[in-house]
Design goal:
The chain has 10 helices and 3 strands; from the N terminus they run αβαββαααααααα. The chain is mainly alpha-helical. The chain has a 3-stranded parallel β-sheet with strand order 1-3-2. It starts with 5 loop residues before the first helix and ends with a helix.
Length: 282
């Protein structure tokens, strides 16, 4: 933010103020951005003597402000003024918790049902394949929704994460994220013949989801090829929803594309699991 009288004050030997607004949802990225900003100012400082201007640059730190001929840098950290790193980590781990728990529990439950022979008993009933799959997903969904509410309570009470947006919107995104996790576990179960095989398959599926989610590392720091793959990761979309809702106070119309992505993932994965389930029965 450069004021309109910046050049006039600089040429007249007055104090010129420059403000940098940094997105501090990720404290580490904000600190790196501040270092880049200071480097830009130093480079600008080296070019000013050619114009006959010899100011002294310094970063404001609550010191003396009455000196003339200074350009003062005022960093302002938006959405996380205290640069609390736990706000960034906790909101990211929340999405991992929902997806990973949903996939692991759902895959184990479906495989054990098949090993015990209860799936064949259900097939003797008038219920269709979709009804059986949904009936198996419903109890897990209710249980994990309770876990999501408890996790939000822990974030607010234990880690002091603020809720600047709508709590209902956050819970809606959590419900879609849980459905995605359960759907992933159901698909894994259709490709597995035992509980051990389901766990090994989840071991190869969950780490890429975690790494490409942006929960721990900023997406911007990844190679460009991997950045394009993150749009196919449901955790990535939910992490954006949770951070924007909690820290920025964003509304539905700012996040509707991510809600739509989670909904599409859920529908596609449920349809794939039902198709695989029917194929195995035939």
């Amino acid at each position: 933010m450069i004021p309109y009288d910046y050049t006039r004050n600089l040429e007249r030997g007055r104090t010129a103020n420059v403000q940098f607004l940094l997105n501090a949802m990720n404290a580490n990225t904000a600190a790196i951005a501040q270092a880049y900003a200071e480097g830009v100012i130093q480079t600008y400082n080296r070019g000013l003597p050619d114009e006959g201007i010899h100011p002294n640059f310094q970063q404001i730190a609550g010191g003396e402000l009455s000196r003339r001929g200074l350009i003062l840098l005022h960093p302002a950290y938006l959405f996380n003024p205290g640069l609390v790193a736990s706000w960034f980590i906790v909101t990211g781990v929340f999405g991992l918790l929902l997806i990973l728990n949903g996939s692991i529990v759902a895959s184990a439950a479906m495989v054990k049902e098949r090993e015990r022979g209860t799936i064949e008993q259900l097939l003797m009933s008038p219920a269709g394949t979709y009804e059986i799959i949904i009936a198996k997903m419903a109890p897990l969904f209710i249980l994990l929704c309770g876990m999501a509410v408890f996790a939000v309570f822990v974030m607010v009470v234990a880690f002091n994460v603020p809720i600047h947006g709508s709590l209902l919107l956050l819970l809606l995104g959590s419900a879609l994220c849980i459905l995605c996790g359960i759907s992933i576990g159901t698909v894994i179960a259709t490709f597995s013949k035992s509980a051990e095989q389901a766990q090994l398959t989840a071991f190869f599926v969950n780490p890429p989801l975690s790494t490409l989610s942006g929960a721990f590392y900023p997406i911007e720091g990844m190679p460009h090829v991997l950045q394009r793959l993150t749009i196919f990761n449901p955790i990535y979309h939910y992490v954006i929803i949770s951070r924007a809702t909690l820290l920025k106070g964003s509304g539905f119309w700012e996040l509707w594309t991510h809600f739509l992505a989670l909904f599409i993932f859920t529908v596609v994965l449920v349809a794939l699991s039902v198709w695989r389930f029917r194929k195995q029965l035939s």
